[in-house]
Amino acid sequence: MAPCMCSKISTADSLVLGALQIMIGIFHVFMWYFLLILYMGQIRGVFGTYEPITYKTGCALWGIIFIIAGGSIIRAVRHPTQGMITFALMMNIFCMIVAVIASILTTIELSSFNSVSYRNYGQAKLGREVSRVLLISYPLEFSIALTYSIFGCIGLSHHHNEDTLTAVTEEAESTF
């Protein structure tokens, strides 16, 4: 049988991935706040106000999940218990799901543009530009979460194998 050539992700790389997730999450929360101020300032016009699906669902506010996942990675690196590694892995899988859903909702929003009153057109246009920027960041978040999830599974299996090997070694030593 060939030896396993897969390796765990380094501590420094894990910390960088966690920090990147936290920064992306903070960026999304700030963009949500910006959109909140932008859309709340709309004036009722002839055609109404512009309230896209991503604004109604609070899509940019989902960045809180990215912050929690990044924090769980950092915590799992500093205190590598099986429970912390599993929690970080679950949070990153959840991040991937959230990033895909947010990408789909943002694409739906950007694919249709109902007319709004002339007074609110500038705010709607600026909000759509923010959505375009956020659409770029979702694949980045997905790739970071996927990277950690893959290496987290490898790390979890290595951690499990080391625990099993230690238990077998201790049992063999107690027999002699």
TrEMBL record:
It is a multi-pass membrane protein. It comes from the Eukaryota. It is found in: Membrane. Keywords: Membrane, Transmembrane, Transmembrane helix. One of its GO terms (cellular component) is plasma membrane. The chain crosses the membrane at residues 15-40, 60-77, 89-113, 133-156. InterPro entries: CD20-like (IPR007237), MS4A (IPR030417). The keyword Lipid metabolism does not apply. Its main location: membrane. One of its GO terms (biological process) is cell surface receptor signaling pathway. PANTHER family: MEMBRANE-SPANNING 4-DOMAINS SUBFAMILY A MEMBER 13, MEMBRANE-SPANNING 4-DOMAINS SUBFAMILY A MS4A -RELATED. Belongs to the MS4A family. This is Membrane-spanning 4-domains subfamily A member 13. It comes from Odobenus rosmarus divergens (Pacific walrus). The gene is MS4A13.
